[in-house]
Amino acid sequence: MVTESSSTTMPAAKGVARTLAQYHQAVVGFLFGFFVILVLYTTVSGQFGSTNTIVVLQSTPAEQNARTSSPPRPSSPASAPNNSTQDIIVHKDDVNKTMGGEHIQDNVPGTDKNNKTDANFDNMQANRTDQSGGQPVNNTIANVSDKMKEEELIRQELDQDDDKNDTNVKKDAPAPRKPICDLSDPRYDICEIIGDARATNRTVLYVPPPGERGADGQEWAIKDQSRKHLEYIDKVTVRSLSAAQSLAAPECTSRHAVPAVVFAMNGLTSNPWHDFSDVLVPLFITARAFDSEVQFLVTDLQPWFVDKYCLILANLSRYDIVDFDKDAGVRCYPHVVVGLRSHRDLGINPARVPRNYTLLDFRMYIRGIFSLPPDSVGIPYKAAASNNATDGKRKPRLMLINRGRNRKFVNIPEIADGARTAGFEVLVVEPRRDLRLEEFSRAVDSCDVLMGAHGAGLTNFFFLRTGAAMLQVVPWGHMEYSAMVFYGVQAKEMRLRDVEYSITAEESTLYEKYGKDHPAVRDPDSIHKQGWQLGMRYYWLEQDIRLNVTRFAPTLHQLLRTLGE
Questions:
Q1: I want to staple 292 with a disulfide (CB 3.0 to 4.6 A). Which of 67, 318, 343, 545 is the partner?
Q2: Could you tell me which of 437, 442, 443, 464 has the C-alpha nearest to residue 306?
C-alpha cells in the first residue's frame, strides 16, 4: 500500500511543478513585455521631453524682455543681420518643426552645436530616473503631461506675440502726409512743401516720392502775401503731382541746398506802415528761423522796395532775390514756403513763432541791422545827462513828422515853436518814399520823442530806443481805437512810451470846410454807421489838423517830466 501511494503522488507533484513553471514563464513574459513597452514609451516621451527642453533653453532673458516690451519695427529679410532674431526668439514655425522631430540648437546660449540630442538621451533619462526617487513610470507620465501643458502655454504666448506684432505694424504704419496748403487762417494762405519742390514762373510743383504718388494730383492757387483778400495781388499756383504727372515733371535747371520763400511785394506797399505790416514783419515771422539760409522768389517785384529795404532783405537772406515772374528756369529746392504768415496788423504772436519772437525782438533786430547803439545806452536825453556831454544843457529832442498830403499839420511852424517853448529841441521832417533808411534811422535814434498825426510816418518808431516816446496826435472822428490798435499797442509791446493827444472838432479842417452842424463834425458815429468808405473819406482822406498849441502845451509839459523820470 505504501508503494501504491508513493507511485500515485509522483505524477501529481510533477503536474504541480509543470503548472508552476508555466505560470513562472507567463509572469516573466508579462514582465519582459511590460519592460519592453515601458522602455519604448520612455524613449518616445524622452524625445518629446528633450525637444521641449531645447525650446525652453531658447527662451533667453532677451526674449523675455522682448515679450514684455513692444517688438521692434518689422524689417525686410534682406536687411536682417546674420544672427537673426530667430536664433534668440522662438517663433511659432520653429515650435512646429521641433514637434515634428527637427531639433533647433544653433546658437542657443549654454549649448554646444556639436552635441546631438540623441547622444545625450541616455544621460537625460538617467537623470530623470535618479530624481524620481525610484518611481520612473509615474514621474515620466507626469513629466509628459507637464511638458504638454508647457507646450500649450508656449503656443498661446506665441499667438499673443503675433497679435501684438500685428497691432504694432498697424500703429507703426506711416502717418498720412499733411496737406501742402493751409487755407484756414482768416488773414493769409500758406503752402509748405518739404521734399522735391520745383519752382518755375509763378508755379511751384511738388513731386512726391514714388511710394506716395496717387492717381490724382492736387492744385491750389493762393495769394502769396499776408493779406489773402487784397484784390491787387495775383495768385501763385501750387501743384502736388500725380503718379503720371510726376514722370513728366520738368527737369531741374538748377538745384539749391537751401529752402525758398515765395512772396509778393505789391499790394498796399509804398506806405511805410503797410511795408512793415504786410511784408517785412510777416517775412520776419516766416523766414527768420532759417538764419539767412533761404532764397526769396518774389512775385510782382518792386525795385524801389528792394532798394529801400535792402539791408533788411539781405539780412533775412544772403542769396540773390529771384524775380519769380520772369525766371524761366526750373529751380529745385528741398523746402519751399509759398506765402507769408501774419498774426495781426503790425504784430507778432510769440506762441505762433518757432523761436517765440516778439515785436520787441523785431525792433531790436531792425536796430541791429542798421548798426544803431545797443539798448543798454538809454534814450539820448538821459545818456547825454549821465555823460555830462553838454554840461547838463542838452534838451530832449523831438522829431516832428509832417505828412505830405492828408492829415497833415497846417500850422507846423506854430507847433514847432510851441514844442521849443515847452523845453524840446525840435527836428521837423517830412519822410519821402525814396528816403535812405540808413541815414534816417540814425536821425530817429537820436531823438527822445517821435511826434506825428496818426499815420504811416509813426512806423519809424522801430528806430527809437527803449524808453523813448511816441506822441500820436489823433484826428477828429472817433479814431482813438484805430490809433491804439495800429500804433499804441505796438509801442507798448516794444517798451516805448505811448502818448496820445486827441484833437477837438475845432482843430480839424472839417470844421472849417463843412461847419459845425455837418454830421461829419457834429456826429462822427452817424458817419461810421454808413460804412467804412464814408468814414475813410472824411476822417482819413479829407481831414487836416490845425493844432491848438495852447491846448496842446500841457501834454508836452507832462511828456517832458516823464522823460526826466
A1: 318
A2: 437
Q: What is the mean pLDDT of residues 87-108?
A: 37
Pairing of strands 260-264, 295-299: parallel
Residue partners of 189: CB distance under 8 A and separation at least 6: 181, 182, 183, 220, 222, 223, 228, 339
**What are residue 310's DSSP bridge partners?**
none
DSSP symbols for 296-365: EEEES--HHHHHHTHHHHHHHBSS--EETTT--S-EEEEEEEES----BTTB--GGGSTT---HHHHHHH
DSSP SS3 for 194 = strand
Contact present, 406 and 539 (Cβ < 8 Å): no
Which run of H or E residues covers position 219?
A: strand 218-223
CB–CB of 191/333 below 8 Å?
no
Residues contacting 444, CB < 8 A, separation 6+: 399, 450, 460, 461, 463, 464
- Residue pair 200/327 in contact by the 8 Å Cβ criterion: yes
Alpha carbon distance 414, 420 (integer Å): 10
The number of beta carbons lying within 10 Å of the beta carbon of residue 312 is 19
pLDDT value of position 166: 46
Give dist(CA 198, CA 192) in Å, integer. 12
Tens of pLDDT, residues 367-422: 999 999 998 888 998 887 776 655 557 899 999 999 888 999 999 999 999 999 99
In order of 12, 141, 164, 279, 459, the CA distances from 267 in angstroms are 138, 92, 57, 10, 18
Residue type, 321: I
SS3 (DSSP) at 555? helix
Query: Are 161 and 65 a contacting pair, CB within 8 Å?
Result: no
Lookup result for grid cell 509543470? 18
Q: How far is CA 90 from CA 58, 168, 393, in A?
A: 7, 19, 92
Dump pLDDT digits (tens) for 536-563: 999 999 999 999 999 999 999 999 999 9
In sequence order, the β-bridge partners of residue 93 are none
Query: Helices marked H in 462-523 — which ranges?
Result: 480-483, 489-493, 509-514, 519-522
Query: From residue 265, how far is each of 61, 144, 230, 309 by CA, in Å?
Result: 65, 85, 13, 12
- Flag whether the pTM goes above 0.85: no
What nine digits make up the cell of 365? 533786430
Separation between Cα atoms, residue 291 and residue 229, nearest integer Å? 30
Judge whether 341 and 190 are in contact, CB under 8 Å.
yes
Contact 483, 489 (CB under 8 A): no
Q: Cα(307)–Cα(155) distance, rounded to whole angstroms? A: 77
